[in-house]
Each structure stands twice: as structure tokens, then as C-alpha cells.
Amino acid sequence: MSYEFKLPDIGEGITEGEIIKWHVKEGDEVKEDQPLLEIMTDKVNAVIPSPVKGKVTKILAKEGEKVRVGQTLLLIEGVETAVSQPTETTQPIQAPQKEQKVVEQEAQRVLASPAVRKLARELGVDLSKIKGSGPAGRITESDVRAYAETLKSVQPQETKLIQKEALEERVPVRGIRRSVAEKMVKSAYTAPHVTHFDEIDATTLVKLREFFKNAAELKGLRLTYLPFIIKAVCAALKEFPYLNASFDQERNEIVLKKYYNIGIATAVEGGLVVPVVKDADKKNLFEIASEITRLTEAARQNKLTLSDVQGGTFSITNIGSIGGLFATPIINYPEVAILGVYKIYKKVVYTEGKIEPRDYMNVSLTFDHRVLDGAVAASFTNRLKQILEDEKLLLSLLF
Amino acid sequence: MDYECVVIGGGPGGYVAAIRLGQLGKKVALIEKNRVGGECLNYGCIPTKTIINAVKLAEKVKSMAGRGVNAQLSLNLKELKQWKNQVVTQLVRGVENLLKSNKVELIYGEASFVDTNTIQVKLKDGSTREIKTQNSVIATGSVPIELPGFPIDHTNILSNWDMLELEDIPSRLLVIGGGVVGMEFAFAFSKLGSKVTVVELMDQLLPGQDKEVSALLYESAISHGMEIYLKSKALSWTKENGTLKVKVFTQEGEVEKECDKILLSVGRKPYTKGLGLENIGVKTDEKGFIIVDDCLKTNIENIYAIGDVVRGPMLAHKASRQGVVVAEVIAGLSSRFDNVVIPDATFTDPEIASVGHTVESATKAGYEVIVGKFPFVALGRAVSVAETKGFVKIIAEKSSGVILGAQIVGANASDLISELSLAIEMGATLEDLSSTIHPHPTFPEALMEAAEAAQGKAIHVVNRPWRK
């Protein structure tokens, strides 16, 4: 009997993932705990080990394919199982069988009535791609029709593409790229985005960073502007709780978070991840700096754990080191706001009767207009500006 | 091409497929070697229910003695058989008429594939006819499995067909196999006056059924005076002075049972003999079932198969649904056999019907379940018509309340189950079921109450957390 290896429950509500790489091929002998494949979920990458020893006879899913928890991925022959033939001379032996941690649930049924299933076939819609709006996630007729409409608008004209093929290269969208694409679509088409712009006098920020830089270096830390901004953001969020929130569509409720986990958009090869600095309001400047270093390193080496990327309440994206004046970031859904911070530059300004060069930084705040309105966003940004520009105030927040 | 589609086998799968193809404007022929309606209409579902209804009615009337209905009763097997034959004939005519009005050509004969577009039919008069067709649907059904040492001889060892043709009620009947067919005949003949013994290989009657349900049936069988041997096996038999002596291996050792007739009902197997599948390379599995996809298509592009010859429970209603689907697929519609559940009904006393998961199978499949149970003894209507045996049991996923399965044992179970089949196909939750108004006083109220019980809020029983 072949052992059917099924994608185990990776935990944290993950139901599917994409196969990035097979570490074995058909015909390979595998040992217990030997890595079988690497899988990417919308949260993290995970290497899945073999629960048994045996010979891989068949691989049932390709690299780049999306697979669901409980789906059979490969067959392993020659597995020792608890089946033994009791005879008169030998006692039945309970062969060691590795308990799988989680009971595998049968391939999750897509909840939809027979008529809706038929409609989906007629419209060429894959029901497993739809999140149902009914009770228990049941997919309704209008869910299917709405999804079919979105398909229509993105379906390319195939004939034209064929002619153009020689002039174009086609890159399969998979892995982290696909995950980013899906998340951005979800966010952009769910939350009505509005972006508010402002500029902040960063002279204080530059000064304080210069001031703490050496102390940080002594601790072996690289100190950027970001930890300062995070501290200021936490302080401002406490005064504007609706920005540290999420929108529960199902129950039509706004969830105000009493904890401050700040996501940091981080570029990695082929895409973007958002690791989270947990309880940033309770960490001091250096602790935040050290946590950022750890998270960005882990992100670049693909070693983020699930808990590193979960539980964010507000996000910051910072492309100041690359350049540009302004951008309109997309919200890290289901959060309700994201702050974009850009490069710090010198400009000559007129203040208190004199003309002097000062450091300036542009910021943009994108918010979910279902939850927040322009006035609140502007007030929040004003407060953030006030904190970052006031040396005493900012200092009082850092430790 | 003579036809756009030829359907082989006129049972509840084949005749339905042919009618639906006709409705969809296809030129279609149906080949049947015996009688349209198949096992179901001629020898199974329909005639057995006619007999079961008669004995049930008699027992019901008897049970009302002293409750205001007193009657002198007698059962006449000969009359009963005549009535049964009338019923069958009426229904077979009905099917023939429907085929005709839907322009299906009905050909009586035995079909065999020559190639994927050619079928040779051996007609009743001995001649043969070659038919060209674009598509074919194999709906040839199943036949009883035989037990080594117990060949069906139609005199001593009987099949379910023979049971319906008996002239006299055997005073002692031994049933080998306590599945659906075996138990339905066991109850019917027990009520007709036979002393019935059942020998079942597994550790429960109706193997695969919920254990609690099966236990209740066991009790009822004992109270009807049957002798039941579980985990037992019929080994051999002899005939002495008109009496059959059967050696049975039982848990108490080997015993010898005397009887007048043996009913062999140890299951059925797919029937494709003589069909020439090997000529066209249609793939079957190790048990002989034809392998099909959700369009009911075999590995050959224009050959389809439905009903008992494909995997899944061997039930008429599965075959009929597949008949509709295959016709629509052939006509280019988007139908698929994608049913979530196939309900079943067993006409024992009490009746049993189930759909979807049992507690055991749901747990095995990885669900965390909640269970609601409601006994008929707590239902007004059941008490007032003296049908208090049994219960309704509903299994749902704990986190979502989505209904996964149900077992009903008791009066009208076979009629009650369909509401739950619909619930499961629709993805309904316990709340959906318990919030739907059910008319009073009726049996389906028990379904609502069981759904309430699962949520700890049944009105007519004391709510206690369910324990295995």
C-alpha cells in the first residue's frame, strides 16, 4: 500500500499554499524528517518534512501549483505501517507509526447550493477561489456573478497575445509575486483608498538620530530614522484609535486594537513582505531598532516565522532610501491605514523671521474611507508632524 | 450514424438517461435484455415495498387491538403477489410509454461492443443487428455476489428475485447477509410467519451504518423473534428429508441450523459480462467497476457509464441522477455529477434512512462535530399514532454549524431524510434548520428538534451535552 502524503496543517488558519520547490523526485528514497518540499503560503514559507521512511513513487503536484491542506501531494511506497500479520507464533506487533500532529480534514467542501455550482460551471468560475458572503462562508449566486464580472475585465485577448509573443517574454506569476498580487487586489478592491499628503520638518529627527547614533553603534545597532517614526506613530495612534483598527465586513463592525503592532513593508527578492514589530509602544528606541534589523534580515533570507508576519495593526512603508517625492501606498488589508515616508532632503525655508536651510520629509497616509474620513486622517497627520518636529516631545517618547 | 446515443440497460439509470436525451432532442436508442425498469422496478425497490407495506399494515392494525380498532386479519400470499405484479406491470408500462413519447427507440436484446461506435445486438428472435452510434452509455447494473458453497439454485438457495416468486411462506428462513436486502426480507418474512435466522459476517447489522442505529435494529429483530448471528459465517449445507441443515460458524462455536429456504444476500457486483468492454478498452478497477470522471465519461471519449456499474453506493436514485447528468453532458450542457451526498433508505421495522457523515466517519475525516439527537417518543405526532420507536440524529461541524450528516430510525424515516439531503446540498447550518417553521403535528418536527438539540436548545427534551 502506498502512503499518501497530504499537505499537513501548517497552523494559524493557513488553508493553502504554493509549491515553491520539490526537494525530492520520483524514485528517491526518503528518511523520516527529510525535507520533501518547500511551500509558500500567504504568510510564510515552510519546509515540510517527510513523516515516514520509504520510496517516493509519484509526485502529484507541480512546482508553482497551488495546493490545499489535506490534498495528496505524493505517494511513498514501502512505508512500515501498523499492519502486521498475526500468526500463531508471532504476536501482533504495533509498528511505530508517527502520529501526525493535526488530524487532516478532508478536502474542505466548497459551500454552495447545487444551482450555484451549476451556474459557476456555466460561467467558468472556480468556486474554490471565491469567498462566500453567506452564513458559514456559503457562496451565493450573486457572489458567483460578481466574481465572473471581475474575470471578464481582466481576461486578456488571447489572439493578440500570440502575435506579440516573440516581442514579449512571459513570466509566470508565482510565489511571492502571486501572493503580493492577490493581496493588493483584495485590498484595492475592498477598501476605498484615499491618500492624504503632508511634509514634515525633519530637522529635529535628523538631530536626534545623529545624537543617538553613536550610542546605538556601541550596542552594535544600526540606527535609522524608522524607529523614531515608529515611536511617534504609536503615540499618535493612541490619540486616534480608529487608525489602529480593522474592518470586520461580516459583522459590520470596526475592531479597535488596544495593542500596537507596526508592520514594516520590506522589499525582498521578487516581492514584498510586511514583518511586524510587536508591541512597538512598549519597546524603547533601541529595542525597536534591533527588532527591525532582525526582521529585515530574516525577510531577506526567507526565514520569517508565522508570528513575525501576523497581528499587524498599522503599517509603514519607507522608500526614502531609493528616492521619489510621494506615493499612494495600498493598505495592508485588513488594517485601515498605512503611512508612507520618503527621503529627507534639505530646503530653504522662512521661519521666525529668518531664512534657513532645514531638513524636510514628505509623508503620505492612505486610509480606508469606510472607517476613516479626511478630517481624521489630516488631524492624525498633524499630530504626527507635531510630535516629530518637537524635540522635547519626541525625546520623551523614545525610552 | 444510426443514433446520437445508445443507452445499454433500461434500469432506473438507463431509462432516465434515455428519456432526458430524448427531451434534449437527441436521436436515442435504449437496449434492454429483460424488462425496462431493471432490478429496481421489477425485482427490488418497488415489489418489495408492496409486500413490506402489506405486512406492515397488518401489524399496525393488530397493534391497535384494544385501542379502538379491532379486526380479524389474514394475509394471503397469492393475492399479495397478484397485487404486486399489477403494480410492477403498471409502472413498467408507464416507463415504456414515457420512452415512446420522448421518441426513444426501445430495442429488446443483448448488446455487445464491436468498436467504440458500433454495437451488436442479439435480438430476442435470435437474429443480430449492428447499430452505429456517436455516443454510448453503459447502464448495465449489477448482479448478486455468490458465496462459495452456496450456489443460487432457485429451490433451496434463493436470490431476492426468487423470494418474490415463492408460492408458500417458508416456515423457517435462513438469511445469509444482514445488509439492506437481507434485513428487509428478514422483517417481511418474519411478519408473514417465517421463523427467521440471520447470519452476518461483520459485527453489526447493516455494516457501515451508525452503530446506535444498527443496535436499535438488532433489538427490533430480536423482539420480532429473529435469531441473529453476528461475526458468523455460513460454512456448508445439506438437505435431509426436505430440511436444509446449515453449518454456521458463530462466536459460540459451530452450530447447525435447520431451515426450509436460504436467502443469499451478501451484496452485489457490477455487471458487464458479454458487453465486450475488452474490445474497446474501457477501463475497470480491481472490483470490476467502470472508472468514470465527474462527467461520467470513461477513458474512451464517447463512452459513458452510470449507476451500479460505476463506483459509489448501488442505489436506484444514484443511477437516476447520473442518468440525468450523463444525458445533459452528452447534449453539451454544463452538468456534472457533483452531488455532495447520496441518501439511503432501508425498509426494515423500524425504517432507517441516512445521509452524509456518521459521527464516526466525520471524526475520521477530521471534523470536530456536534451531535443533536431527538427521540420520537418525545414527539406529539409519534405518540398519537403509536410510532415512538427510534430517533433522529444530526451531525454538524462544531465551528460553523454546517450540517454534515444525519441518521433517522423510526416511522417514515425514508420520507424524512430528504429535507436533510437538501440541507446538506445547500450547505445549510443547524440554525437554518432549527429556525425553519415545521408544521405541527408532524414527524419532520423531529428534524427541527434534533437541530435544536445539537445547539443545546431543544424544547421537548432535556438538553444534555452529547456523549459518544
Report what the structure shows.
- The complex is a heterodimer of chains A (399) and B (468).
- In chain A, helix 6 (226-239) packs across helix 7 (285-300) and helix 6 packs across helix 9 (374-389).
- In chain A, the strands form five sheets. A six-stranded mixed β-sheet of chain A has the order 9-18-17-16-12-15.
- Chain A has three domains: 3-77, OB fold (Dihydrolipoamide Acetyltransferase, E2P); 114-170, Dihydrolipoamide Transferase, CATH 4.10.320.10; 192-398, Chloramphenicol acetyltransferase-like domain (Chloramphenicol Acetyltransferase, 2-Layer Sandwich), CATH 3.30.559.
- Mean pLDDT of chain A is 84; it is low at 82-104.
- With 399 residues, chain A is an alpha+beta fold.
- Chain A contains ten helices and 18 strands.
- Chain B has 468 residues and is of the alpha/beta class.
- In chain B, strands 1-2-3-4-5 form a five-stranded mixed β-barrel. In chain B, strands 7-14-8-9-10 form a five-stranded parallel β-sheet.
- Chain B is globular and about 65 Å long.
- In chain B, 46% of the residues are buried.
- The mean pLDDT of chain B is 95.
- Classes of the chains: A alpha+beta (399), B alpha/beta (468).
- Chain B: Residues 4-323 form the FAD/NAD(P)-binding domain.
- Chain B: It catalyses: N(6)-[(R)-dihydrolipoyl]-L-lysyl-[protein] + NAD(+) = N(6)-[(R)-lipoyl]-L-lysyl-[protein] + NADH + H(+).
- Chain B: GO terms for molecular function: dihydrolipoyl dehydrogenase (NADH) activity; flavin adenine dinucleotide binding.
- Chain B: One of its GO terms (biological process) is 2-oxoglutarate metabolic process.
